[in-house]
Amino acid sequence: MDKAADTAKGLIRQTNEALILSAAERVFARAGFGGATMAAIAEASGLPKANLHYYFGSKEVLYREVLARILNDWLAPTHGITEDADPRAALEQYIRDKMTLSAERPDGSKVFANELLHGAPVIKGLLATDLRKLLLEKAAVVQAWINAGRMAPVDPVHVFFTIWASTQTYADFDEQIKAVLGRTELTAQDHARATEHVVSLILRGCGLE
User: For 79, which DSSP code?
Assistant: First the structure.
């Protein structure tokens, strides 16, 4: 009985934390860290404000968790970039996954971009450790592909910078893109067209047509 109760309690916690993190992502994207309030996040999540403090303690802790979740979700698709993988298939899938995240989680991208534009005061340590370690590992894979003659000689680190910039612009600068395209919102067709363009452009640049 106790085990069942603990399991149920754990599931409730996971559900509530996910609701809070998603709501916080939306609120931080629109109001910034300074303008966001725990009351606004609670309202967006549909949970009492007391729940936010119970699970996360403070706005600062919640903000850090939002950033960590965004970074984790962005880096998860790199798992397919391994030395024995097909370079074209692996890079194409990574680009497509990043474009999907930009379409489905634009608020997350905006929160992260805003943090970087302010000097990354909260997440700088994570960027210099976890992100750097993973990027160098994946860049080494790209270099191995190049050394084996499996793709064009490009700068392995900057390939990832290019992918990030190309994919995240559709979230971070969506207002600019909507204005130029004459849209009030980007459509599924817009995202599909953009995805094919970015995939084609980067793969051709890597000699992977």
Answer: G
Crossing angle of helices 59-75 and 49-56, rounded to 10°: 70
Quick one: 77 and 162 in the same domain? yes
Instruction: Give me 11's structure tokens.
Output: 């599931």
Residue ranges making up the domain that contains 186: 68-205
Measured between alpha carbons, how far is 13 from 162 in angstroms, rounded to an integer?
38
Maximal CA-CA distance, the chain? 61
Tokens of 91: 């890079």
63 is a domain residue? no
Calpha distance 36→27 (Å, rounded): 6
What pLDDT, in 10s, does the model give residues 56-109?
999 999 999 999 999 999 889 999 999 999 999 999 999 999 999 999 999 999
Contact present, 77 and 98 (Cβ < 8 Å): yes
Cβ atoms of 36 and 59 within 8 Å: the answer is yes
| Spatial separation of the C-alpha atoms in residues 207 and 93, rounded to whole Å | 16
